Amino acid sequence: MWIVRLALRRPYTFMVMAILIGIMGGLSIVTTPTDIFPYIDIPMVGVIWSYIGMSPDDMARRVLFVSERAMTTTVNNIERIEATAYNGVGLIRVDMQPGTDIDLAVAQVTAVSQTLLRTLPPGIYPPLVIQSDASSVPILQLGLSSSTLTQQQLYDYGANFISTQLSTIPGISVPQPYGGKVRTVMIDLDPDALYGKGLSPTDISNALNLQNLILPTGTVKVGAREYLIRLNSSPALISAMNDMPIKTVNGSPVYMRDVAQVRDGYQVQTNIVRINGSPSSLLTILRHGGASTLAVVQGVKNLLPKIQATLPTSLNISQLFDQSRFVRASVEGVVREASIAAVLTAFMILLFLGSWRSTLIVCISIPLSILTSLTVLGLLGETINVMTLGGLALAVGILVDDATVEIENVHRNMGLVGRRWFGRFWTARKRSPCRPLFPRCAFVSSSFRY
Q: 275 and 178, same structural domain?
């Protein structure tokens, strides 16, 4: 073959190429994303509408139906729209055509959703528009538990302290925790006290909305100094809200503490998580489609000790699920099988052919072939996953067969060439016994004979 002749004429060129393949293959192993499955490019946009207290039927007819109709006339490349209505929550899933610019789709969905607020029921919040794809799956789950902290404190630490610090890792997405109780300022009304003062819950709500404000008031300059003015600002402490005046009844003011009690509480709990029987919170970590599972999980594990140092010592963070173990096991399995195949092939060649050079060639050619494949995968933007590793595992068997056949064929041809040369030499010696082996001796012999 031409490549064999070229390799024999240019040995140093191929040595340099082998070194470059080794370097590029090593870099590809480090930089190529590694995951359990290949990246599935199915763009999807999710829209979450929220209106506490609205029934699923009203949410479907008055919110989701209107939003779906508006998307069909504004958003491009829609493949399918699926909507689900719950009590106070509506979910719309918009599947886009493959190859759609997902950033443009998110912008279009956000724009059309904002224009619908005037036509929807009054008081509804703007929707939450999120980007997702089929490869955004949980890769790590952290359990937050404690024997001394309350459930609202666990949720608060997970949502406001741990998630915010984990968000700095490239390719990670951390949603709100599951379980626990959402920390909220609660006002417990006393119906008898309200009836005795001639007040209603509406009066409490109006007073709270009017006085719990943050208004831009500016500054005032007195002499050489400038002072900041605070007017009708929000209370700095929860306990200060108990001193908030509600209304003047019979010439005397009624304060919040007279008819209600303000406390640090929680919303109605809709889900619960238990770890070893104790109430806890669950923090699920997702990865973006093009990120590496091993890189994201390793980044989380490296950052957790620093986060743990800033939290209470009674807060325990445990790893409940780790998908990187399956990915790492797949990679180690392929490496192990390739190593076993290379060692057995080298031992067989060394045993039957007795050539250490041929053994060295086989031990180098098989890893170089695998590194070449990994380099091509990295250049094409593919990932190292179970399917690509399975293909490499099958290719190792082909490499072993090809290496064995090639080495044996080379030795056989070398033996045939040597046997033919020896046969021609022996035949020539039998025909002319006095004819020497070298031409100069033949010339001397012929001159001596004449």
A: yes
Q: Are residues 159 and 195 in the same domain?
A: no
Q: Work out how many domains the chain is built from and give that number.
A: 4
Identity of the amino acid at 53:
G
Same domain, 23 and 56: no
**Same structural domain for residues 48 and 18?**
no
130: β partners: 46
DSSP sequence for 200-268: -HHHHHHHHHHHS------EEEETTEEEE---SPPPSSSGGGGG-EEEEETTEEEEHHHHEEEEEEEPP
Which tokens sit at 425? 């030499």
Q: What's the sign of the alpha-carbon dihedral 245, 247, 253, 257?
A: negative
What's the rounded Cα separation, in Å, for the pair 316 and 450? 108
- Note whether 75 and 108 are within 8 A (CB): yes
Same domain, yes or no: 300 and 372: no
pLDDT tens per residue across span 38-80: 777 778 888 989 888 888 898 898 999 999 988 888 888 888 8
CA angle 306, 308, 310 (to 5 degrees): 80
Give kind and range of the element (H or E) at residue 321.
Answer: strand 316-322
The verdict on residue 103 lying in a domain is yes
Q: Are residues 50 and 85 in the same domain?
A: yes
Kindly give the pairing relationship between strand 260-266 and strand 183-189. antiparallel
Q: How far apart, in whole angstroms, are the C-alpha atoms of residue 311 and residue 308?
A: 5
Reported as a single tens digit per residue, the pLDDT across 215-247 is 777 788 888 888 887 776 677 788 888 888 888
